[in-house]
Amino acid sequence: MSGFVFNEKPIEIARGDGPYLYGEDDTEYLDMGASYACVPLGHGHEAVQSAVSDQLADLTYVQASYPVAVRTRLYELLAEVAPGDIDKVWLCNSGTEANEAALKFARSATGNSKIVATMQGFHGRTMGSLATTWKDEYKEPYEPLIGDVEFVPYDDADAMAEAVDEETAAVIVEPIQGEGGINPASAAFLSRTREATAEAGAAMIVDEVQTGLGRTGDLWAIESTDVVPDMVTSAKGLANGLPAGATLCRDWIAEDHGSHASTFSGGPVVASAAEATVSTLVEAGVPAHAEKVGAYLREQLQSELGDSIREVRGEGLMIGIEVRRGANRCLRDLALNHGILALPSGRTVVRLLPPLTINESEADRVVEAMSEVVG
Ligand SMILES: *Cc1c(COP(=O)(O)O)cnc(C)c1O
Questions:
Q1: Does the predicted model carry a pTM greater than 0.70?
Q2: Are the C-beta atoms of 371 and 305 separated by less than 8 Å?
Q3: How far apart are CA 270 and CA 204, in angstroms?
Q4: What is the whole-number distance in angstroms between the Cα of residue 234 and the centre of ligand 1?
Q5: Alpha-carbon distance 202 to 168, whole Å?
Q6: Burial (Cβ within 10 Å: 0-12, 13-18, ≥19) of residue 158
Q7: Cα–Cα distance, 301 to 363 (Å, whole number)
Q8: Best of 96, 118, 126, 270 for a ligand 1 pocket test (most atoms within 8 Å of beta carbon)
Q9: pLDDT tens per residue, range 2-25
Q10: How far apart are CA 366 and CA 358, in angstroms?
Q11: Could you tell me if 315 and 176 are in contact, meaning their C-beta atoms sit under 8 angstroms apart?
């Protein structure tokens, strides 16, 4: 995880502004990881800050069984922007909870238990989501996890079609694997997955916790294909830094979702932050900006770094740079010598998930720093 990067020289962060973080000693850092994609609009975004302060003054919390205007508006907004005819919304506090709910809803709605997940996939760390996460080192100390999970190779349409059968409750899949190394799936794989699940009566869950909210150039990465899944999960940047998650479902799932519930589901303060975040993303055309700056950044990385790296992968501002030596060494060098914070993705990939509001000159700074780091 990221902690190791700073083992030798801890950086204590005092405040943030746009794509920048500032240390206690006022050192400026360009936050190219957006602290794990959690601040798509940048740090301290005005519209989000003021929505949250207004809501704090009016009402911090009320139990979820009473309607509150801000939560009702958020339900409507998410239903409106969800892919295809998805229009039911379950709110929670994190990505793992959003996936946990999706898995429970699928088991309840189908009456089946089998879950098909993908190798190198990551869906969270609570017991249910963890069982669908690939890496053994995350799972082994906690076993037995929930059973009946089968893994297929990512982007292998035949293997997926073969694994999905009458006993299957759900397939859970990322459109681009984040934690697994920034691996994009082909549109053909996603549509075969859609066909196979539809045929078997199983739910297709698309985990957009990392890819969603404009990062890949569309509000949802799955929108670059013609696939409409049964559920889409979201979290990370959903409330621009406050803890929020959502499971967006089709009617047939919502109608038979069982008895799942959570005390803080759609709490007013977090709902106000999510409403401000999502409406700003949409109204300001942030996904299109991410696509443009992302394409520029990937092109520049490719042309400037050339043979000193293995590959640049990704879509929009979800970028993986496969380096020739360890990613950790690069990340430490970037942070300490260039004032740029990025993330690892496995041992050899430097991962960039910046605020979607960065501009081309900030992108240039990253390219320059990376050239020195890998040169
Ligand atoms: C981060 C992540 C999760 C887990 O989200 P948490 O909020 O950390 O529980 C799930 N799926 C994907 C694709 C992620 O990137």
A1: yes
A2: yes
A3: 27
A4: 9
A5: 6
A6: exposed
A7: 9
A8: 96
A9: 555 545 446 889 999 999 999 999
A10: 11
A11: yes
- How many other C-beta atoms are found inside a 10 Å radius of the C-beta of residue 337? 11
Measured between alpha carbons, how far is 355 from 34 in angstroms, rounded to an integer?
5
Q: What angle do CA 256, 261, 267 make, to 5 degrees?
A: 125
Q: Which domains does the chain have, with CATH numbers?
A: 13-45+285-374 (3.90.1150.10), 46-283 (3.40.640.10)
Tell me how far the alpha carbon of residue 233 is from its chain's centroid: 9
- pLDDT, mean of residues 38-62: 97
Atom of ligand 1 nearest to the CA of 179: 15
- Determine whether the shortest distance from the Cβ of 210 to ligand 1 is under 6 A: yes
Counting atoms of ligand 1 from 1, which one is nearest the CA of 210? Answer: 15
Joined tokens for residue 255: 């109608």
**CA geometry: angle at 177 spanning 175 and 181, to 5°?**
150
Q: In what order do the strands lie in the sheet with 168-173?
A: 88-92, 245-249, 231-234, 203-207, 168-173, 114-118, 149-152
31 close to 370: Cβ distance less than 8 angstroms: no
The residues with which 249 forms a beta bridge, in sequence order, are 88, 231
Checking if the pLDDT of 63 tops 60, the result is yes
- Mean local confidence (pLDDT), 188-215: 98
Amino acid identity of residue 317, one-letter, is: L
Residue identified by tokens 């993986």 is 320
Q: How many CA atoms lie within 13 A of 40 on its CB side?
A: 35
Q: Which helix (H) or strand (E) holds 96?
A: helix 95-110
pLDDT, tens digit, for every residue of 97-137? 999 999 999 999 999 999 999 999 999 999 999 999 999 99
Residue 204 pLDDT greater than 70, yes or no:
yes
Q: Does residue 144 have a cis bond before it (omega within 30 degrees)?
A: yes
Residue 129: CB atoms within 10 Å: 28
Coil/strand/helix, residue 176 = strand
Q: Which residues pair with 312 in a beta bridge?
A: 321
Length of the chain: 375
